[in-house]
Design a protein that fits this description.
By secondary structure, this protein is α/β, with parallel strands linked by helices. The protein is built from 19 helices and 12 strands. 41% of the residues lie in helices and 16% in strands. Its EC number is 4.1.1.39.
Length: 428
Amino acid sequence: MPARSKFGDMFSLSETIRGADYLLATYYLSMPAEADVLGKAAGYAVGQTIGTWIEVPGVTDEMRDRHRGRVVKVLEAPPVDLSTQAEATSGYFIQIALPTVNFGASIPMMLATCIGNDISTSVQAKLVDIEIPDSLAQELVGPRFGIEGVRELVGVRDRPLVLNMIKPCTGLTPEQGAAIFYDTALGGVDLIKDDELLGNPPFSPVVDRVKAYLAAADRARDVTGRDVVYIPNVTDRPDRMLDTARRAVDAGARAVMIAYASAGFGSLQSLAESIGVPILAHYAGVTPYFEGPGTGLSAPIALGMLPRLAGGDMVLTITPYGGYPLRRLQYLKMVQQLQLSRPHIAPAFPVVGGGVHPGTVQTYVDELGPDIILGAGGAIQGHPDGAAAGADAMRQAIDAVMAGRSVVEAGQEHPALGRALDRFGTTV
């Protein structure tokens, strides 16, 4: 029998993995420069698939071949080759191939496989990239409507959409919220959603809100001739959420919202597969996934790739311009994860929220293009002349940018826009 290396067949070149049924997960970790990083990577690959910290009976060669992870790459950062150049601590990017047969088209099980067992494997690592094979992408639902479906719903093809969220966040009865909805719908808004803090409380049940808000939308349409789509928040534990969502759609809702990190990525998957309307995926509760510098997963995965794979048609993004210290590079990569072409998975509509006002429109369109939804809350409800004027100001800013005009110049012609710029400023 030929001699085998220390790690046996735990390592594979990417050429032998490419095209096979493996998810490629890339991690970053920091270790002492002289530590056995190859052994650590191999241990993690086994621990996340078939292994435990101690040998157990029942593991067969067939099981290893079909279910065990393999190490594909170990890259040092910086790429030091000489011992005389090494620092005391080194950073490493480790890529592990995980057999998709282990978790299938279940994002909860995919996450558990990628990052769920690091305590048992004694590895502190941050998941920074995932590559999905075509075979798995075909099984995942992804957005059922996506950008094209949402544009068809709203009836707008050639510009960014305007989304408003009802403020104050909570405490309103359906009738009180409907009054705010009506005032806002008189302006140039396309979609109005619940705030993420308003779910299905006794003082404002979702179905009652749908009925009251749609009646307000009808009254506003009689005045303006424009249709406004209401998006109720159905976030809850899975069983109640699905029931509430179905009853909301039966009452006339044409889209729904879920806070996917709070309810779970699996809940978003279930909703996408069960409900026949577009879904707005809200990021409430997602920051613990990515804020740790050495654990968890990167923001583009948590806020971009996963909600898209799970079925979000519209996905709320975090930007560096609303006060949260997200790096601009991560924000741009997040939007790329939502928009760039991916085999078998439709693109999702990025929803830009947090500090959005007419003076920010130019920056967002320049950076992200026109296929975005601009979510303005306080800039609409807080406009000096009321919510309708605030919505009009957003539309006027968008129309100016799409026409290649200066927002400031357009503000001299449109009083609503001019007043908004005076109050909120003209730059991010």
